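Here is the promised in-class demo. Please do not try to memorize the tokens; focus on the logic of going from shape to residues.
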């Protein structure tokens, strides 16, 4: 689950990470109230207005602006709220800005004595450790730093069962070129950030920029945070943080019925049981020169209802030109899956305009074949998985066959 900047900052602040004060609004009517409140609480005269969308690079797209008086604030806020914000991380059309964050400007304009750093914390799966990635080159696109000056990016690996050692936090702060008060504040900052990463069950935490003010405060100015979906049940407060308007609606629908669906760019829809088999199936499709349209794991209970929902999810995608069902019947027997497929197919006959290719292997695969045979669905069998893409090509050549089903038994 991705969080918005303002949500991540609020969460980080509960673990002691310093942030700039700010409030969000979705209706421009609330602007005066919020800016007055913020001025009273912080004494600030300058504000920063920031689009809250799930994409980085907002500054470059005009989604982050500094306002030096009430008039500027009004014009910045009204231009950003409701805009279609295009950044290198959005689609060509951009993303609609439904919410903006109004925060105190913490850059002390005119002084130009601040520094911007980059700090992120993520899981290094190959070493099974938590990795702190950091750089003196903050505020800019970190990908280009990594490409042009990789020597300016540092890494510190933390053993999660031991936790962040004080000397590690010190080393990071020192490598960022700090000393004195700012060094001390950075050590505290990194320790709080690590604490937040672990306790909030994040899988990624990226602060770019981390600001050092001219009076040596260390503040998180931006924050990108991804929460591990598998941990959400442990945190009651997370239910409110999901912004479904930012998510792929099909993925949201899939999650609501317990299916694991990820939209991809290709044209072969996939329905598979088990994440490992799903990935292997996608690899095989690619190796055979095809492109999967999605990842869909129907899980252990591939009954008629689930198969039908899964078909619907796959078929709503106009890119899909064929559907490949690749199910290994272990705990869920093939005959049960076959019944599900037949049932779902009958219920959706009018909507199915593309060939459905089914491979059922494992427990009761013979019974499954009989169920499909007896159903009257057109059957095409092949002896190996590599034939799948040939069959798809074949169906494209024989337009009259579109709409029929093929079943492959290996
Ligand atoms: P991003 O473009 O989506 O990464 O959004 P950021 O929150 O990182 O903002 C982009 C840039 O705007 C930052 O790198 C800062 O240089 C600048 N910025 C952000 N907050 C402030 C602020 O409070 N005051 C000033 N003067 N600049 C800011
Ligand atoms: Mn940023």
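The designed amino acids, position by position:
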């Amino acid at each position: 689950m991705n969080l918005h900047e303002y949500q991540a900052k609020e969460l980080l602040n509960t673990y002691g990470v310093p942030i700039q004060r700010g409030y969000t609004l979705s209706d421009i009517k609330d602007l005066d109230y919020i800016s007055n409140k913020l001025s009273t609480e912080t004494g600030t005269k300058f504000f920063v207005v920031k689009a809250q969308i799930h994409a980085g690079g907002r500054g470059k797209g005009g989604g982050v602006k500094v306002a030096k008086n009430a008039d500027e604030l009004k014009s910045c806020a009204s231009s950003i709220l409701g805009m279609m914000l295009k950044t290198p991380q959005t689609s060509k059309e951009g993303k609609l800005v439904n919410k903006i964050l109004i925060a105190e400007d913490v850059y002390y304009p005119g002084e130009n004595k601040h520094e911007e750093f980059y700090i992120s914390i993520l899981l290094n799966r190959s070493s099974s450790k938590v990795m702190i990635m950091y750089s003196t080159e903050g505020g800019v696109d970190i990908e280009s730093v990594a490409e042009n000056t990789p020597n300016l990016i540092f890494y510190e690996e933390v053993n999660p069962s031991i936790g962040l050692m004080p000397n590690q936090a010190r080393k990071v702060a020192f490598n960022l070129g700090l000393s004195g008060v700012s060094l001390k504040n950075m050590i505290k900052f990194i320790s709080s950030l690590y604490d937040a990463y672990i306790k909030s069950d994040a899988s990624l935490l990226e602060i770019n920029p981390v600001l050092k003010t001219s009076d040596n405060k260390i503040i998180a100015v931006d924050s990108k945070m991804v929460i591990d979906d598998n941990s959400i049940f442990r945190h009651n407060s997370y239910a409110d943080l999901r912004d479904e308007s930012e998510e792929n609606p099909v993925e949201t629908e899939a999650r609501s019925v317990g299916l694991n669906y990820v939209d991809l760019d290709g044209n072969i829809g996939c329905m598979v049981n088990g994440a490992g088999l799903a990935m292997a199936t996608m690899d095989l499709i690619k190796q055979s020169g095809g492109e999967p349209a999605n990842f869909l794991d129907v899980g252990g209970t591939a009954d008629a209802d689930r198969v039908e929902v899964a078909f619907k999810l796959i078929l709503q995608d106009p890119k899909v030109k064929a559907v490949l069902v690749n199910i290994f019947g272990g705990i869920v027997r093939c005959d049960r899956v076959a019944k599900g497929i037949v049932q779902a197919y009958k219920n959706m006959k009018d909507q199915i305009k593309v060939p459905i290719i089914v491979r059922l292997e494992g427990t009761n695969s013979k019974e499954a074949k009989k169920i499909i045979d007896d159903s009257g669905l057109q059957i095409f069998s092949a002896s190996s998985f590599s034939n799948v893409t040939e069959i798809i090509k074949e169906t494209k050549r024989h337009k009259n066959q579109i709409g029929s089903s093929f079943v492959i038994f290996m």
